[in-house]
Amino acid sequence: MKKNINIDIALTHIVTRRRQTLIAILGVTLGLSIYLFINSLVSGFTNFSREEMFKSSPHIKIYHDDEISIPLIFPKDSTEIVAIINPQITTLSKKIVDPEALLKRIKQEPYVVNAIEQVSFDLFYNRGQAQINGFGSGVDIFEYDAMFKTGKTLVAGRLEDLQNNLNAIIIGSGIAEKLNLAIDDNLTVTSSFGVVKRMKIVGIFTSGLTATDNSKSYVNISTAQQFVKKGSSFVNDIYINIPDPDKSDIYGARLRQLTTYTVEDWKTTNADALSSNRTRNALMNAISLSILIVAAFGIYNILSSTISQKINDIAILKAIGFSGSNVVWIFLIEAIFMGLVGIFIGLIAGGIFIAIMSNVYMGGHIGYFPIKFEGGLFASSSALGLFITICAGYFPAKKAADVDPVEIFRK
Amino acid sequence: MKNKEIILSTKSLGKYFNEPVKFKVLDDINIEAFKGEFLTLVGKSGSGKSTLLYCLSTMDTSYEGKIYINGVKVTGQKQNQLSAMRNADIGFIFQFHYLLPEFSCLKNVMIPALKLGRLSHEEAEVKAYQKLEMLGLENQALKQSSKLSGGQQQRVAIARALINDPAIIMCDEPTGNLDSKNTQVVFDIFKQITKDHNKTIIAVTHDNDFAANSDRTIELADGRIISHDKHFD
Ligand SMILES: Nc1ncnc2c1ncn2[C@@H]1O[C@H](COP(=O)(O)OP(=O)(O)OP(=O)(O)O)[C@@H](O)[C@H]1O
Ligand SMILES: [Mg+2]
């Protein structure tokens, strides 16, 4: 095999300077494994908290927002000021008019995975003297389950029992605990419209979110409509899921063309949580990137010292016909070699950290730490590691290429 | 001399050093070297011999005037072209041997051939071994070069300069570190290269006998040529 002479020289340098090579490799290994680990942590946790969001909020929600009255008299031009303005909320009902037609129309859209309607209302749970306030959600429980996987959160009872019984209710485990209720017990529910009903508990759920478990319950849509004293066409919200939640703004814009009601995507609904997520991610990225850069600095250091020690050799190479770019290549190959080996071991080490972390039990509704092996992160860490390595190698290599042999030989 | 074919020539070559004060280290140098010629450069210490040799070797490009090698004007050529020319057409032997210390002697000799890429790895190895044999170093071929004596290293460097059969071999005091026996060995090899292989040697030397036995001697003083064919007693 005809081995390239540049590679040959580079490998000889690496082998004869084993100790320094090893240190540089270890630096990259450490930097890369930490980078990979931290980013996997961040990504795992971000996915987890996103999934948590989608347990209660749909990708896109359509509802009838409050309307503000508009002035009766408009200024004739910009210099004129109208003194009689009194904007106030004018919404009489949060009702969506003709929801069936809208829902049918929405379901025709090719990108809609799921679309359901909901009647929501405030209520009190009463048992004897004890009272808890909360809110009810009137839904087709199977459609709702398809969207939010409510069935999986049930700790007692069955979804089917709600579907066929207008007096049935599924309550959060917090309510059950506080009111000392179990399956098949009866519970008095009073809506904010003053409607009182005896409901039979057919299911108890634990969502993991304490606030929800302590207040929420599910009933049939028609039951909910009775609670709010409205007819069978009354609906508050339409929930829609799409294939890729990250594209919710695009699809939201399309849905806006179908209706005059407010179309809100999950990013808007969860804006606060998302922005604090982003802040945390940026912080973690900055930290892990700095560690990687510091690690690559090891390569820079070791190549710089190799080059200043080997300045005679570089002068000889140039004298016997190696061009500047040949010299750059020789040292770049050394950097790339150290980088690749360091990256390879770093991926293994990072993988081990991830495996260990995924077995750490965090307790609560989180369970085991939500970290996964993400191929994309392995690939992007490797690419970034290699890029930084090449940069760290290039500058000393360029310095080597600029060595003037005459100056060295004159010494 | 069989035929006087010019292999290297300069046209009013001049060079300045700016530090510590500006002075002209080479002044109006016009020389010609012929194919198959064993040419020596002499002169007092500081007269500019090494400086001239570095200009001729294409490593130093900051000079005035023009240099032609093999009929090609090298002045003003790009660094990459000059590198390729040094690799293929010029062999260089330094005063302080300068081998790559972590490679074997054989590898040191092979490197310019591997760089040139005309020979396979095996062919280059065979050829390098022949050159080492010629210099009486066949037993040292696989030793690490830094483990050789000064004289041996000097001869390895000579083998390295010869490996690509360059048209010109330039040396700066090639026998400076050698005893009289090895000086004679080197001298004989130079004679052989010039006479049998029709190569040109330009050697800077302080050794009067060495110069006297060469084909021609150019003498420098204060950066000027004072004699094109100096003969010693
Ligand atoms: N880099 C430099 N900067 C300034 N002056 C220099 C430099 N290199 C050499 N000189 C000066 O140039 C002159 C010629 O130097 P050069 O090395 O060519 O002499 P030389 O003839 O080879 O001497 P020697 O026989 O001692 O090797 C000397 O006066 C020296 O001091
Ligand atoms: Mg000199």
TrEMBL record, chain A:
Record membrane topology: Multi-pass membrane protein
Residues annotated as domain MacB-like periplasmic core: 21-257
GO CC field: plasma membrane protein complex
Organism, scientific name: Flavobacterium akiainvivens
Domain of life per record: Bacteria
Transmembrane annotation, as ranges: 21-38, 282-303, 315-337, 343-364, 376-395
Ranges of residues in domain ABC3 transporter permease C-terminal: 286-402
Protein family membership: Belongs to the ABC-4 integral membrane protein family. LolC/E subfamily.
PANTHER family reported in the protein's UniProt record: LIPOPROTEIN-RELEASING SYSTEM TRANSMEMBRANE PROTEIN LOLE
Name the UniProt record assigns to this protein: ABC transporter permease
Keywords tagged on the record: Cell membrane, Membrane, Transmembrane, Transmembrane helix
Gene Ontology process terms (BP): lipoprotein localization to outer membrane
From TrEMBL, chain B:
Gene3D superfamilies attached to this UniProt entry: P-loop containing nucleotide triphosphate hydrolases
Keyword Zinc-finger listed: no
Alphabetical list of InterPro entries matching this protein: AAA+_ATPase, ABC_transporter-like_ATP-bd, ABC_transporter-like_CS, MacB-like_ATP-bd, P-loop_NTPase
GO MF term set: ATP binding; ATP hydrolysis activity; transmembrane transporter activity
Entry coiled-coil feature ranges: none
Superkingdom assignment: Bacteria
This protein's record includes keyword Hydrolase: no
Sequence ranges assigned to domain ABC transporter in this UniProt record: 8-233
SMART domains linked to this entry: AAA (SM00382)
GO cellular component term of the entry, any: membrane protein complex
CDD domains recorded: ABC_MJ0796_LolCDE_FtsE
Keywords from the named record: ATP-binding, Nucleotide-binding, Translocase, Transport
Family the entry assigns: Belongs to the ABC transporter superfamily. Macrolide exporter (TC 3.A.1.122) family.
The protein's name: ATP-binding protein
The species this protein was found in: Flavobacterium akiainvivens
